[in-house]
Amino acid sequence: MSISDLGKFFLDKTKLINLDPVPQSKGIPQPALESPTNSGQLKIKLTPPEKINFGKKEFRQLLEQRRSLRKYAATALTLDELAYLLWSTQGVQKITDTLTLRTVPSAGSRHAFETYLLVTNVKGLTPGVYRYLALDHQLAEFDLSERIVNNLIEASRMKFIENAPVTFIWAAVTERMTWRYGDRGYRYLLLDAGHVCQNLYLSAESIDCGACAIDAFNDDKMNQWLHLNGEDQFVIYMASVGKKN
Predict the structure, then answer these.
(1) Which of 18, 51, 121, 146 sits CB 3.0–4.6 Å from 165 for a disulfide?
(2) Burial of 1 (0-12, 13-18, 19+ CB in 10 A)
(3) Measured between alpha carbons, how far is 121 from 132 in angstroms, rounded to an integer?
């Protein structure tokens, strides 16, 4: 099957008229709003968004100045700056029994992403990989070994992230989306990834940082190092962030 045929196949099979009944319509309970953590993982409380005073630029200025940034100053990000970027991209504003309302749009408010962070230069954080617990606005330590830092940099296929204080890694949990939308939910995952990354670009610009989206990573290796099965949980998008020179 050629690339063009594969694309046409995907679009055809995810048309509304071609979908089978979805799990929600069958009365199947919805998946959890957030992936669980291990009991032994250390959790770090982040400054609540209402107590962070960042972002003084006008919105039009942010739009005009936003550019992908691949060269970063040697300046560390503060933990509050990181908290602000996390809240801007996945911040939870309201929780109900069935959904969350966040700072980014998502089809049906499904919010099917988990945010992993490859941290190399953030004040107060040991270099390593963390996961953002959006429901509680906390970080959970995932793996602080030097090995995973090096392996994720290699799997990203982008050498410039070696100098990025933090790289955002968004992993899709497909069940959250397909529970309501079936196979068409895969379209929405791709759209939602764009919403999230654009928020990162604009919020980074507001604190004199820059971001660079990454989609040419080694899928299998990224999933392997983040303990994702690559089928119903997989890395969908990445973006590095750092201070401007």
Answers:
(1) 121
(2) exposed
(3) 17
Q: What is the pLDDT of residues 90-133, one digit of tens each?
A: 999 999 999 999 999 999 999 999 999 999 999 999 999 999 99
Q: Decide if 174 contacts 206 (C-beta within 8 A).
A: no
pTM of the model as a whole: 0.96
Q: The tokens 């799990």 sit on which residue? A: 23
Q: Which residues contact 211 (CB under 8 A, 6 or more apart)?
A: 68, 69, 197, 200, 201, 204, 239, 240, 241
CA distance 78 to 125: 9
Nearest to 138 by CA among 87, 172, 191, 189: 87
Q: In which region does residue 242 sit, left (phi positive, over 0), alpha (psi from -120 to 50) or beta (all else)?
A: beta
